[in-house]
Design goal:
Two copies of one chain form a homodimer. Chain A is an alpha+beta fold. Chain A is built from five helices and seven strands; from the N terminus they run E-H-H-E-E-E-H-E-H-E-E-H. Chain A has a five-stranded mixed beta sheet, sandwiched between helices.
Chain lengths: ~160, ~160
C-alpha cells in the first residue's frame, strides 16, 4: 500500500489546490462558479491573518486531495471549525486519502478545543453522506442554506 | 412610528445579546444547547482579533434585536460574509427591526466587497423563509448541514 502523507499546504500548493477546487465544481455541476484564482488563494490563505488553513494529501509526492478549514462562531458553542471542502481527485479515490484528510481535520479541531466541526453536503451525494454518517457526523436535514449572491446584494441595496 | 436605531454592539451589550440568543434557542426547540456565556461573547467578539461583529436594533434605548456576522471563505468566491443569527424579540416583531438589521448586514457585506452573504434557516420557519425570499435570497434546498459535535469529535478520535 502506498504511503499517504498529510501536510499543511503552503502558497506553492495553491495552483494544484485550485485544480482540485475546479474538479469538485464540475462534479457539483457548477464549473463556471469558481471565480477564485491561485493568486487569491495565496494571498488569502497565508500571511498575517490567513482566512483559512489548508491540508493536502500526497502520495509519492503528488497532491491527490485537500481539505480546507476556517473558524466560524456559533452563538451556542463559541468558536467552531468549519470544513469548507474535502476533495480527493477522482483517479485517487478508494485508497484512503479522504479518511486521512478528515482524520487530520478532526485532530486539528480537537487541538483548537472546538465543540463542533461543521460542513455541508449535497443531499444527492450518497457516498459522501454514508462516509460522514459512518464517522459519527449528524445530518441536519431541517436546515436550509441561504445565499444572497453578488447580484442579489446589488438588487437588495437598490431596493432599500 | 417609533424610531429604530441600528448600531454596532459593544461588550456591554453582550448580556442582552445572550438573552436574545437564548430566546431563539427556545424557539428552535433547543433551549439546553446554549453553552456560551456573556463573558465568552465579550472575550470573543471584542479585542485584537474579534471572532464576530454584532449589530443591535434599539427602540427608545431598548435592544429588541441583533444580527451577528463573521467572514467565511468560499473556494469559489473568496471571502464571504456569514449571518449566524438575526433575532428580533417576540414582543417587538412587526415594527421593522428585522428588516433594519438585515439592511445593515447587507450594507456591511457590500462595504467589505464580498460576493456572497450566506445564512441558514430552519425549513419549517416559513415566515423567515418568505421574508428572505422576498429580499432576493436563494434557498439551496439540496445542501444539508453536517455537524460533528463535541462527543462526536471524541468518539472519532478514539476510533482512528
Amino acid at each position: 500500500m502506498k504511503q499517504i502523507v498529510i501536510r499543511e499546504a503552503g502558497p506553492l500548493d495553491m495552483p494544484r489546490v485550485l485544480e482540485l477546487i475546479r474538479e469538485l465544481a464540475v462534479f457539483e455541476r457548477e464549473p463556471e462558479a469558481v471565480e477564485v484564482t491561485a493568486a487569491h488563494l495565496e494571498k488569502d490563505g497565508f500571511g498575517d491573518r490567513p482566512a483559512f488553513k489548508c491540508f493536502v494529501a500526497e502520495v509519492e509526492g503528488y497532491v491527490g486531495g485537500m481539505a480546507l478549514v476556517y473558524p466560524r462562531y456559533s452563538t451556542w458553542k463559541g468558536v467552531v471549525l468549519h470544513l469548507e471542502d474535502l476533495i480527493v481527485t477522482e483517479s485517487m479515490r478508494g485508497i484512503g486519502l479522504g479518511v486521512a484528510l478528515l482524520n487530520r481535520v478532526v485532530q486539528y479541531g480537537a487541538e483548537k478545543g472546538v465543540k463542533r466541526i461543521s460542513w455541508e453536503v449535497l443531499d444527492w451525494n450518497k457516498p459522501a453522506i454514508d462516509f460522514y454518517k459512518n464517522k459519527g457526523a449528524l445530518l441536519l436535514r431541517d436546515w436550509d442554506v441561504v445565499h444572497l449572491d453578488e447580484l442579489g446584494i446589488q438588487n437588495y441595496l437598490n431596493n432599500i
